[in-house]
Amino acid sequence: xxxxxxxxxxxxxxxxxxxxxxxxxxxNPTIISSAKSDFKKLLLDIRNIIGEDKMLxxxxxxxxxxxxVKEAEMxxxxxxxxxxxxxxxxxxxxxxxxMCKARGIGVTATAIFTQQQALMAxxxxxxxxxxxxxxxxxxxxxxxxxxxxxxxxxxKQGIKSxxxxxxxxxxxxxxxVAMVGAHSVTINPDLFSTLIxxxxxxxxxxxxxxxxxxxxxxxxxxxxxxx
Length: 227
Ligand code: G3P
Description:
The chain is an alpha/beta fold. The protein folds into two domains: 2-195, Alpha-Beta Barrel (TIM Barrel); 197-227, no CATH class. It is built from twelve helices and eight strands. The chain has an eight-stranded parallel barrel, surrounded by eight helices. Helix 6 (115-123) links the parallel strand 5 (106-112) and strand 6 (128-131). The radius of gyration is 20 Å and the shape is globular. The termini are far apart. Bound molecules: SN-glycerol-3-phosphate. SN-glycerol-3-phosphate is lined by residues 6, 26, 28, 132, 134-135, 166-167, 186.
């Protein structure tokens, strides 16, 4: 399962890019707006941080297929590198997905809440479909179950589209979508740190340091080898 950063916060993206094995960054209009900065500069800054090879997913804001495709082409040319246009699942969106695929533009179908939306988007050529886990859980639906059925449906029907599970609030949600076969998740920078935190890990590291220092003092492995 691939990890992506769902954020436009440059410090958060920098940290995740430096320390975590991320495959890309995803944004949406809410995330971009929350940065309250120049749109073009923000996109270039994100691209500069992650480089050309990692995925950058940016959402179209137009309503009609033709306008969405125009935005997709402009964004692809402007952002460069490994780029995906995010398109919400609407009738115009589906038309735009097919048109973007025909033009060789990577497509992520977003705002997915049902299995049939995912199937339709996949048939329209979406490379990724993005179901919103926490928002499903918040309406007493079951985000993990939706992901599970999309994965099964794609497997059974030989569909190559990947699930990019989005909208997470907890580590448990991330773990459970991993267990049902999500191909990728996009999560906020804070959740990356929470996913690897465990007090027993910290306890073990403290014990290693304490035991080591009783014999070798302040010297580290490199100091001893260099003597
Ligand atoms: O990128 C879309 C998705 O991650 C939305 O997340 O937290 O606004 O439900 P959230």
